[in-house]
Give the backbone structure.
Amino acid sequence: MTPLLQVQNLETWYGPIVAMQGVNIEVQPGRMVAVLGANGAGKTTLLNTLAGVIDPFKGQVIFNGEAVHGRDADAVSRRGLVLVPEGRQVYPFLSVRDNLAMGAYSRRDADGVRDDLARVQQWFPRLKERESQHAGLLSGGEQQMLAIGRAYMGRPRLLMLDEPSLGLSPLLTKEIFGIVGRIRDETGTAVLVVEQNAAIALAHADDGYIMELGRIVAADTCEALAQKADVREAYLGGAAGQGLSGTAQRWRRRKTWR
Ligand code: ATP
């Protein structure tokens, strides 16, 4: 099958600092792909580079058969590569309804927009209950739901999520990953999610990559990754669901993964 997204040898710098290099990733249509990694591994840099927020220094991003690297963020999102940024970033002084409408601003198919709004409200009933409220008054979990709903209103082919678990309880994180799984299953939308919470990401995604110090160091199905001794030790041992605080140093020292 032709991949929906093909990332080849991608490299991004911040001034004199190389944040990511030699990155190769594929997302097949209809799959959920997770990129796992500790703090500072380069996960946000990867998504921002794919979304056109940062220009890569080197490499290619082929999306739906077209080279999109170096294009601006608006052009990339109009092609269906839509990012839910870290920290949600909803419009706090707009209502929930208007935030969702903003996600569909470039669409001209009013009927399709109405159907998608109904779908989003079915996935996230709390957004329907709170449609008139200012988004800034929602809880962190509800804001994450709104950010995902708003991104869906842009009809993504590939929905990219930056650390959806950030600041959320394990229960809420599980609920949100469950709904993202439904979005994939019910609409065929592919998902690329970057996460520090490896346990939850490996449990919900189909394929996974592990990123360390700006490089991909392991790639497999999530089922296979979850069986690997090194991955279990660094990510899933006692610290599962609690972040990587206990294992980050060991993780940083490792160069290769079996
Ligand atoms: P986190 O989960 O903490 O966001 P991450 O895996 O998303 O981590 P990035 O935010 O992509 O990692 O950071 C990758 C590297 O690039 C880190 O070493 C970070 O310090 C550096 N970096 C990130 N943003 C900038 C910036 N604007 N200027 C300089 N260096 C940066």
Notes: The domain at 5-89+157-227 is CATH 3.40.50.300 (Rossmann fold). Confidence is low (pLDDT under 50) at residues 238-258. The first helix runs from residue 43 to 50.
